[in-house]
Amino acid sequence: SDFCLFPADIISTVEFNYSGELLATGDKGGRVVIFQHEQESKNRPHLRGEYNVYSTFQSHEPEFDYLKSLEIEEKINKIRWLPQQNAAHFLLSTNDKTIKLWKISERDKRAEGYNLKDEDGRLRDPFRITSLRVPVLMPMDLMVEASPRRIFANAHTYHINSISVNSDHETYLSADDLRINLWHLEITDRSFNIVDIKPANMEELTEVITAAECHPHQCNVFVYSSSKGTIRLCDMRAAALCDRHSKFFEEPEDPSSRSFFSEIISSISDVKFSHSGRYMMTRDYLSVKVWDLNMENRPVETYQVHEYLRSKLCSLYENDCIFDKFECYSYWFFAIMTGSYNNFFRMFDRNTRRDITLEASRESSKPRATLKPRKVSTGGKRKKDEISVDSLDFNKKILHTAWHPKDNVIAVAATNNLYIFQDKIN
Amino acid sequence: MFPKGTKRKFSDSGEEPVSGGDQGPAAPSAAARTLSSSYSLQRQSLLDMSLIKLQLCHMLVEPNLCRSVLIANTVRQIQEEMTQDGTWQIMTQALAAAQCPADRLVATEVLCRQTDAAAQAGQSPKPFSVVGLEEGYHSEEVVMEGDVETEVTMSTLSPVSPQLSSASYLAGPFGMGPCWEEEEEEDGECEEDEEEDSEECVSEGEEAERDHLSADSRTGEQVFGTFEIKHPAPPPDPALEELFSDVDPSYYDLDTVLTGMQSTPKMGPYDLLESLSSHGPTALSSSSSCRSDLNELDHIMEIIVGS
């Protein structure tokens, strides 16, 4: 099995921006690395479709909470881009406690020919100046600067697991284990608490919030998922504190498959709306479920990610893998992608119901080579090229994946490596 | 999960076979007997594993609340099932009998309060809830209210834990660490079963103030305080001995737990539990692909050893 030699390099979140031109990754060391899609160039056609590093900056630093004697990890839990409004790009990045708004801007010109200072910045003696000149902008090497514009701090007692930009582009929500807050992007010294599931008596705590997302079109609607496999849809117009849901989504449990691990594997690790806002997608330990917002009592589709793990739940509980939080992503809701173990990731075509397992690893993917589908043998005879369940490496987990909003390009984070795959055209 | 009336396997323990046509639903008292001992052993192992996971939660810098809640819920489920089987009563009584009263660090008044509560509540033990047994719950040093969380440090772990009584097995409610602040020597007046201790530190009366303290605590950590699963003294009852025989007593000792976690735990029993819990017999899995992340354990060991 692989050990990551530099744990700080472990990628903890991946996200394309709205145009797909930029791809941001956050890592365990609190760094954000942004990749940019290279423009197609006639002179260098081989560079078409490549993503290269555009900007790197330290978003969060480790902190120490003296009151609780606890370290606050600098790991970036989520990055969300804001829609682009001018030449600069804005993104929100968050660790367990603090959300930051970053502005990423380009500078490719520099003013030269100042009167009061010379080229290296030293002030000129005013008495020596005999003539005036107008400074001119001269081209310079492209410099990409990242600067923190807002810091939204001190609003979360528990660990932030989600941030989601609202469709009004003015507000966003942040969710931790027990509470969800609504922020205005311009205001950092206060936020509105819109969900609070903390019981008065902590001994009664049996359920936590695991993910939250704003509706893509209705700025008053959001959903949040829980560790018991439920999703609640809330309408902010109904009350200031959305403790009472408008809709409650839960699939009834299958009594024949009930075990001590049933609740754990039903815990939802990710929830995403479809582009239309009519559907949503949830990821629990073994499956991805598609829900119609108009039907609360069961999902409309269920996709098995790695059902062969169902018989291994006790081992996975022992080594804590059962608590891994996988994300899911969709491409215009035609296709769904999610990660698994052994650096495998799965893609499901909702129309044809076909699915495929692919691997993100150096050995199996040379640059520009086509990925070969993989298969896990579930028992009985193992065919050639199949891998048995017992040989899977559970340290190689693909938790974070993202799909380009327009093209068939996907980004897959495998521990500390980022893989970018795309559909071959011709 | 294990439907009553299921035919017992031949390989099951040497309990007296029930005669003839007794294949129907077993009487509650007989339920414990008809239950496969290997199943109950697996369940016990799962319970132990879960409690240890909760203990280790405290070692981590910032325990994951979601994980802690899920583990605690699992323990609750096991407890409920064991309560229905009657095995829970047996186990806690054994622990109660095994412990030495002088070691118990429980406020006298709390224990006395239990008498009434227990009398009212009846026989059934309170549902499992996790306690913030600390590890030196120095909450008296930080007298604040609201969202402030009290300090729980690793360094105080060792000195305090050995003194805590085995009452901890079931422990108290979430975030009720403060109840253990009153580390008075018990007079021996009120001797209760530990299971009823779980009612103890309920926030009532003068506990309310300290409750307030813990109310907004860093629940994950505080909540899942250390469980001192008392090293069971040799139980006099052979039946009880059988219950504990396959469980290594050193498993409960904190130090050996931590070092023990580094090595591969037995994989065999869990496979049985998995197959019981899922769709039927499956191939036994090897442990090689399911090794714990040693990096995390190394980190924990470093903290404890102080290196």
From TrEMBL, chain A:
Cellular compartments per GO CC: protein phosphatase type 2A complex
Alphabetical keyword list: Repeat, WD repeat
Transmembrane segments: none
Keyword Disulfide bond: no
InterPro entries reported in the protein's UniProt record: PP2A_PR55 (IPR000009), PP2A_PR55_CS (IPR018067), WD40/YVTN_repeat-like_dom_sf (IPR015943), WD40_repeat_dom_sf (IPR036322), WD40_rpt (IPR001680)
MF annotations from Gene Ontology: protein phosphatase regulator activity
Residue span of region Disordered: 362-383
Gene3D superfamilies in UniProt: YVTN repeat-like/Quinoprotein amine dehydrogenase
SMART domains associated with the record: WD40
Assembly and interaction partners: PP2A consists of a common heterodimeric core enzyme, composed of a 36 kDa catalytic subunit (subunit C) and a 65 kDa constant regulatory subunit (PR65 or subunit A), that associates with a variety of regulatory subunits.
Family: Belongs to the phosphatase 2A regulatory subunit B family.
Protein name: Serine/threonine-protein phosphatase 2A 55 kDa regulatory subunit B
Organism per entry: Acanthochromis polyacanthus (spiny chromis)
UniProtKB/TrEMBL annotation, chain B:
Transmembrane region(s): none
A Pfam family: SERTA
Residues annotated as domain SERTA: 39-86
Segments forming a coiled coil: none
CC per GO annotation: nucleus
Designated name of the protein: Cell division cycle associated 4
The species this protein was found in: Acanthochromis polyacanthus
Compositionally biased intervals (Basic and acidic residues): 209-218
Amino acid composition bias (Acidic residues), ranges on this chain: 180-208
Endpoints of the signal sequence: none
Highest taxon above the source species: Eukaryota
Ranges where the record places region Disordered: 1-31, 177-218
